[in-house]
Amino acid sequence: MPFTTQHALQPYWNLAVAPVQADGLAAALELGIFEVLATPHTPAQLAEALSLHAPHTALLLELLWSMQVLERDEADAEAQRYRCTATTLQYFCRDSVAFCGDAWLYRLHALRHFANQLSTLVREGGKAAPYSTASGVNWAIAAQQQIGQEQRAVTMRAALSVMQRIAPFADRHTPLRLLDLGGGPGWVAIALAQAHAGVHGGVFDWPETVAVAAANIAHAQLSDRLETVGGDLASDDIGSHYDLIWCSSVLHFVPDMAAALRKIHAALTPGGVFVCVQAEIAPAAGDAARVLPYYLPMRMLGRTVTQQGELAQLLRDTGWRQVEQYSASDFPMAPVQVLIARKDGA
User: How far apart are CA 153 and CA 302, in angstroms?
Assistant: First the structure.
């Protein structure tokens, strides 16, 4: 009689093997395997092209095939040829405009760096040692690499989807003053300006970071409509008279979230809209499990991750009277909560 019920230990066995799968993907990215497998190759052909060990290359390719990272031709068992799936071509081949390989490797190494400290942190307390120092220079590097990749590949499209819910954005020619707050490399502001001829405004972030945004804006030929402002959200002026402020995964980093929300509220025109995309901790274990592993390092560094619904209440407490909230899974490190808050009109 066949056994069809999963053993209670299976989820934990799956956890034990997950690092092997992650390291298999990391090895393929670091060795440049996916660029070669944009066209079909046998393991021997791939090994020759990249000067790899042929028998071990064959074993890695089989693992990646089982993970549905690669496809293979089943017609000839003696000379099976492997090639990238459509998803792998789009996100893990370096010549793709949506390449996210560096961003994925950064997440892997940063989370692993934290996980190795977990027992000590729980035993002794204190804060986790960060994977990289939180400095303007390092934020600029992140804006050029992992944050930039994720914004281009994921966040730009997701932001445009959110904007379909925003009435001022519906008329593509009505003038709309925008602030991309904590916008990093500026790709969200660029996407919104490209989609809406009436958008003008800027990107606010650390001075070193907005230098990256300024270069991207110039490359997109939008310097006449978008500018950059360098500063610290916690202590510096962010400007005023904005019709729309976009803020994605930024409020985790401010020391006083309520004060930041009051500053944002003051910067909006009457009737202006604040769109905040932020992870929150869901009340159900299964839903919370999709968020907590990403954000446990941040929380042990002393950053704030709110309980679901807490940020919406904080918005109401700091001056907004209309707050809409929904869950979205098309952002990096999803699911996230999308909050759309409107300032009272004149």
Answer: 29
What percent of the chain is helix, strand and coil (3-state, nearest 5)? 50, 15, 35
Of 314, 229, 316, 244, the C-alpha closest to 280 is 314
Q: Residue 327: which residues within 8 A CB-CB, separation 6 or more?
A: 335, 336, 337, 338
Give the whole-angstrom CA distance, residue 292 versus residue 282. 9
Alpha-carbon torsion angle 277, 278, 283, 289, nearest 10? 110
Q: State the DSSP string of 131-147.
A: SS---HHHHHHHHHTHH
* CA distances, 223 to each of 64, 186, 189, 194, 227 (Å): 43, 12, 12, 12, 6
- What stretches of 164-305 show up as alpha helix (H) in DSSP? 167-170, 187-195, 207-219, 257-267, 285-288, 292-300
Q: What is the DSSP string of 27-63?
A: HHHHHTHHHHTTS-B-HHHHHHHHT--HHHHHHHHHH
Give the mean model confidence (pLDDT) for residues 214-229: 97
What is the Cα–Cα distance from 94 to 42, expressed in whole angstroms? 21
Taken in order 157, 158, 164, 169, is the CA torsion positive or negative?
A: negative
- Do 43 and 57 touch, CB atoms closer than 8 A? yes
Prior bond to 335 cis, omega within 30? Answer: yes
- The total number of residues written for the chain in this structure: 346
DSSP class of residue 307 equals B
pLDDT (0 to 100) of residue 229? 96
pLDDT in tens, 69-90: 999 987 666 689 999 999 999 9
Task: Set out the domains of the chain in order of their start, with CATH numbers.
Answer: 10-96 (1.10.10.10), 154-342 (3.40.50.150)
Enter the pTM of the model. 0.91
Q: How confident is the model at residue 2 (pLDDT cuts 50, 70, 90)?
A: low
Q: Is 273 in contact with 341 (CB distance < 8 Å)?
A: yes
What pLDDT digit, counting tens, does each position of 239-251 carry? Answer: 999 999 999 999 9
Q: Give me the helix-helix angle, 187-195 and 207-219, nearest 10°.
A: 40
